[in-house]
Amino acid sequence: MMSEVIRILQEGVDRKKLDSLTTSFGFPVGAVTLVDEVGVDVAKHVAEDLGKAFGEQFGGGNPELLTQMVSKGFLGQKSGKGFYIYQEGVKSKNLNSDVDSILAILKTTPKSEVSSDEDIQFHLVTIFVNEAVMCLQEGILATPAEGDIGAVFGLGSHP
């Protein structure tokens, strides 16, 4: 999903809007906030490893976004800056405007026929559904209930 989050950001969707779309769909944390909480450096490492292992299956946005953020020290919440700026004792967070220049360089054109808010929500959740189906087909999951349990404990929700 994170690779698709990068793609959606590259298409110009506002970070706060994307967080709102994911939480309003049922995810416990906004997708952009999640990258900051996990760590941009960790997301970069995972994107590289999954890209090598699975190729196009884990395609999406340009991981150069994460590479450039890490090179500028934007590691997320732990460094005080990621997609957002974090301040000790302050609950609200502001956008890190320094990320705007990186996004501008990596900007892509969205496909207008699949760019509505609902399209974005369904696209992100469909990634999980497709992976769950493949896990069932490959015998990684014995039953759909195992996938449900994994979603509840792993995502904090039932997509």
From TrEMBL:
Domain 3-hydroxyacyl-CoA dehydrogenase C-terminal: 1-86
Pfam family, one: 3HCDH
Coiled coil residues, start to end: none
Highest taxon of source: Eukaryota
Name of protein: 3-hydroxyacyl-CoA dehydrogenase C-terminal domain-containing protein
Annotated source species: Saguinus oedipus
